[in-house]
């Protein structure tokens, strides 16, 4: 367990932090359909533009989106490749837990078999 902690990835922490907020997840979902102006992203949220900009900054710092200025408009694009690190980590965790559950299942089956063969 300690060896896994030594492999702590700060980028992964930023990704999960960014995804931990429902507003940021909603913004990311809307951006996933293509480049979207910040003003369009802010409209349906009911939040002020500075609040939306702070959420977008968190997403950009995590590498989940990229922004660019086109004239007076700031466009946001998703960077789905960034999710690869999170998916890799989640897959590794799932594999580890499935292996643990398989070993536990084997252990329980052994106990049941030993109990049936017992006194």
Shape: elongated
Query: What is the average per-residue confidence, as pLDDT, rounded to a whole number?
Result: 86
CATH superfamily of the domain at 2-83: Winged helix-like DNA-binding domain superfamily/Winged helix DNA-binding domain
Strand order of the largest sheet: 1-3-2
**Tally of separate helices:** 6
- Biggest sheet: strands, sense, closure? 3 strands, antiparallel
CATH architecture of the domain at 2-83: Orthogonal Bundle
Textual characterization of the structure:
The chain is built from 6 helices and 3 strands; from the N terminus they run H-H-H-E-H-H-E-E-H. Helix content is 66%, strand content 12%. Strands 1-3-2 form a 3-stranded antiparallel sheet. The radius of gyration is 22 Å and the shape is elongated. The mean pLDDT is 86. It has a domain at 2-83: Arc Repressor Mutant, subunit A. Helix 2 crosses helix 6 and helix 3 (22-31) crosses helix 5 (49-61). It is mainly α.
Write the layout of secondary structure elements.
Layout: H1 2-6, H2 10-19, H3 22-31, E1 36-37, H4 38-42, H5 49-61, E2 65-70, E3 73-78, H6 83-117
Antiparallel strand pairs: 1-3, 2-3
Helix pairs in contact: 2-5, 2-6, 3-5
Summarize the structure.
The protein is mostly helical and 119 residues long.
What are the main properties of this structure?
about 120 residues; mainly alpha; Arc Repressor Mutant, subunit A; three-stranded antiparallel β-sheet; about 65% helix; elongated
